[in-house]
C-alpha cells in the first residue's frame, strides 16, 4: 500500500544534538619537545623549516607548505597564514596535482599566529640556505617541477623518512602531530583556550575543547597556583612598603 515510503515523517530530523565526530587527541599522539627537535634534525634539508612552522605556530601541514615572504609582512611577533597547498583530485597529471588556495580551512580568512624566536631562526636559516621562489617568495618548491609547490603526498614521503631516521617510526606521528604539540604546549602554559582556538584557526572554542579536553583537566590546579602566586606577591609588596 506504499504507506511506509509515503510516510511524511521520514524526512523529519530527530531533535537533539548530533553525536560529535571530534575525537580527543590522545597523549601518545603528541610528541615531546625533544622528539620535535629530533624530527627537525632528521628532516630533509629544504623542508626542515616546515617542522617548526607547524610545531611553533599551530599551522596545518598545507598552511605550512604555503608560507612565503609575504607571510612575514605582519606585526612583530606574528606570522601571517593566508594560503594553503591543496591537491586537486580532478587533475590527473602526475606530480602536478597541487596548487595554492588563497583561503584557509574553515575560517576562509587569513590569520596571524605567534612567530617565536625558534620559528624565526628556522625560517631565516631556510631562506639563507635555500632561498625562495615565485611571485610571493614561497619557501617550499617541488624538487621535480620548477615553480610548483611541494605536494602533500611528497611531503608525507619525506615525513616518514624523517621519522625513521629519528628512530620514531613506531610512534605513528603524522605532520598534524606537530599541530597537537603546539596546542598542548600552549594549554600547559596556561594560554586561554579562546586564544589557542584563534591561533589554530578554529571558529570557536568548541572544537579546541573537544580535541584537547584531557589537557584541560589540570586547569584548576593552574588557577590555584596563579591565585597563590598573586597572594604571595601581594604579601611581598606589603612587606616592602612596610620597610620603606
Structure description:
- The chain has a single domain (about 25-210), classed as hpI Integrase, Chain A.
- About 40% of the residues lie in helices and about 5% in strands.
- By secondary structure, it is mostly helical.
- Helix 1 (about 35-40) crosses helix 5, helix 2 (about 50-55) runs antiparallel to helix 4 and helix 7 crosses helix 8 (about 205-210).
- The protein has helices spanning about 35-40, 50-55, 60-65, 115-130, 150-165, 175-190, 195-200, 205-210, 220-244, and strands at about 80, 85, 100, 110-115.
What's the short story on this structure?
This protein has 244 residues and is mainly α.
Sheet with the most strands: spatial strand order: 1-4
Percentage of helical residues? Answer: 40-55%
Q: Give the CATH class.
A: Mainly Alpha
Measured distance between first and last alpha carbons: 95 Å
Give the CATH topology: hpI Integrase, Chain A
Give average pLDDT, whole number.
84
> What's the Cα radius of gyration?
23 Å
The SSE order reads HHHEEEEHHHHHH
CATH architecture: Orthogonal Bundle
Low-confidence stretches: 89-95
| Count of structural domains | 1
Largest sheet: 2 strands, antiparallel
Task: Give the number of helices.
Answer: 9
The dominant shape is globular
Q: Which range does the strand content fall in?
A: 5-15%
CATH H-level superfamily title: Intergrase catalytic core
How many β-strand runs? 4
Helix/strand class: mainly alpha
